[in-house]
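U., I forgot to send this yesterday:
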Amino acid sequence: MRPFLTLHDPATARGYYDNGLWHGETFYHLMARHAAMRPDDHALRDGRLRLDWRALKTRVDAFADDLRNQDIVAGDRISLWMSNRIEAVIAFLGCSREGVACNPSLHRSYTCGEIIELLQELGVKALVTEPGWGADRASKDFDAMLKDVSTLTKLYTPDDFPTETIAAEPEPHANPDSIAYLAFTSGTTGRPKCVMHSSNTLLANARDLARDWKLDLNSVILSLSPLSHHIAWVAMAQWLVSGGELVTDDPPKDVSRLDWIVETGATYVMGVPTHAMDILAEQKKRGMARMGNVRTFYMAGSPIPEVVAKAFVDQGIAPQNIYGMTECSSHQYTHPDDPPEIWVSTCGRGGPAYSVKIWDVENPDRELPQGETGEIGGKGAAMMLGYYGNQAATEKTFNRHGYLMSGDLGSFDEHGNLRIEGRAKDLIIRGGHNIHPSRIEALALTHPTVEKAAAFAVPDERLGERVCLAIIGDIAAAEMLAHLAAEELSKYDMPEWFLSVESLPLTASGKILKRELTEMVKRGELAPEQVRYTAPKAS
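Result:
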């Protein structure tokens, strides 16, 4: 076993075990138990294939056998950079059998250069990917670039994925407290940090959710969030706890998400409010009275608009309002018996696997009383085990009481429901996709005519937020977008609004007041130009 340095503490762990928050099973153990008890029941589905539990276990064991054959062992790392195919879930469970840490958080929006840096940072032994995947894969020789990852020994694609077991069934890795999951997230600077989770830290939250929302063997869990996003792995953990069927966001060609929900018989759909609004709009346009078999619609990432909640309630679907982070999963959530005003205005009271308190923004070691707004901090069985290879970032994330500080602002109502008030950190979330203003600004400032740049959020009814770039300098919007593209800004992070200004609002210390820019747009004092980046056609 190659060791990780983590926050795992045996004394704390004993308390979690004693309280039933942690169990002695890994992800693989749960999967194997379902396969033994109900081998012919449906287990996993994408737009190409549907597996029962027996077939799933065979495919997982085949992948795990190949890892072993490649001398990829417990403590090693592999990464996934691919679409929402079931191979990603199979690889993850195969890693669990061998004790290998799996990193599935490489988004389609990443460039090849960004991927190489992240693979190098983790020192991965293997990569699971597919041709053409990524922001600029079509114009890069990614296979040649992989030669710069000196630790890489194996490349898997769906076309050469192991499907046959090659060894007698070995004893699986048995430690549910070792690192099983690695997910890149980012702080205010945009520099990725890599969250470490064990089977137990992820499953603790999943057990709370599955219990409180009554998921069982008949549940069909469909994640609209891609497998590179943490929400999809919250879905995976709930699936293994409940034993139902997991469906990925991979509908067949020309099948809409609404039709995929109906076709798969999904009962529990997970995503962000943007997903909900788009699907409800399609449902209304087509005159459909009911959204298939859906009973619960999980929404995280931004507040649920009241009109969205009502549209679900009117057809017998319970909207589930969620707040969380990759570091602590979907720890705050509403409950089925909450009144509608709680669904709409709060993120609920969550479960026992994570405890939240509100802390003074100026003094994060001072807890604030009920009703006051401050920074949200929490700790518990669902909390990450630190950032991979980054002691400094791990230290900065916690206050002296051991609470993980979120960077988000909130308050509690008199019933203990958490209300999100805003963000303290510099981050724009566009339809669930995190965009880091600092990177856009840094690239904009490389243009010789730009003196200052500020990327800030403009509210958007459908996506929550879009990026507006304000600059002081002599450059038109189209030229700026072309410059950002030349500097390899992902097309998914491109500004959609543009402002050329003579001055920017500043704090007393000279920092740009981005919140004031947002408010100035809301008040009509600034009128940004709507822009859209279009990549040049190949000649």
